[in-house]
Amino acid sequence: IKKAKNEVNKVIERAHRDSLEPSPGNSLRQTFENMVNGLLNSARDNTGSSAQRSLSDFNQFKAMVVSGAKGSSINISQVIACVGQQNVEGKRIPFGFKHRTLPHFIKDDYGPEAKGFVENSYLQGLTPVEFYFHAMGGREGLIDTAVKTAETGYIQRRLIKAMESVMIKYDGTVRNQIEQLIQFTYGEDGLAGENVEFQSIISLKPSNQLFERLCKFDLSSGEKYLSKFLTDDIIRVFYPNESF
């Protein structure tokens, strides 16, 4: 994080010296903001990666992320290492009070802290200023959730109302209630999707005794039994006092 802050300060110095070149299609201010945002976001990602590497493979949070069940490395980064840059409408926190983001900062301060960078993690706790910026970024997410839910719900309703009269006629074509042709053959192959594949549930066929013999996993059976399924380091978790 300190390295990223130093890089941001160098970019600010270059902007003050007028030695910063605008990137294609962007103004000088846009180029500056993009560079700073990129540096701070990479700092969050790098701290998250190092935090994830430091966690044990048995850590449940890490297991959720690595397996793809829930969450991402960004969640690990924000909880343990650094919450990162807060954005409003895709940009750093804008000036709003006499050329500053909050009264706590001096005029025209473009530094990381003054423009919404949250250095602390959720585990450490945010400062009042960081909490304020975090609330600004979080509010945008809440609004998006509410608006998109309404939009997608209305789109779905219109689709349902538009397609509720569509049916397969006796000649095999797909038409609506006023006989407008939609498809010559349903699904282009005339096959009903629910009957194309059949799945067999093998657990229903065997008796209770056979199912138990095939599938029961018993920790009390000892290390030799567990060695059929588990590696040595996992067995040591169950039998820490045994020698292998």
What does the model show?
47% of the residues lie in helices and 6% in strands. It has 244 residues and is mostly helical. The chain folds into three domains: 138 residues, RNA polymerase Rpb1 funnel domain (Topoisomerase I, Chain A, domain 4); 34 residues, no CATH class; 35 residues, no CATH class. The strands form three sheets. It has a three-stranded antiparallel β-sheet, with no helix packed on it. Helix 1 packs antiparallel against helix 2 and helix 2 crosses helix 4. The longest helix has 36 residues. The model has no long low-confidence stretch (mean pLDDT 87).
Distance between the termini: 44 Å
Q: List the total number of helices.
A: 8
CATH superfamily caption of the largest domain: RNA polymerase Rpb1 funnel domain
Regarding CATH, which class of the largest domain? Mainly Alpha
In summary, what is this structure?
This protein is mainly α and 244 residues long.
Defining key terms:
244 residues, mainly alpha, Topoisomerase I, Chain A, domain 4, 3 domains, 3-stranded antiparallel beta sheet, two-stranded antiparallel sheet, 8 helices, 47% helix, flat
Fold topology:
Elements: H1 2-16, H2 28-54, H3 60-67, H4 73-81, E1 84-85, E2 87-88, E3 91-92, E4 117-118, H5 128-163, E5 167-168, E6 174-175, E7 181-183, H6 208-215, H7 223-226, H8 232-238
Antiparallel strand pairs: 1-4, 2-3, 5-6, 6-7
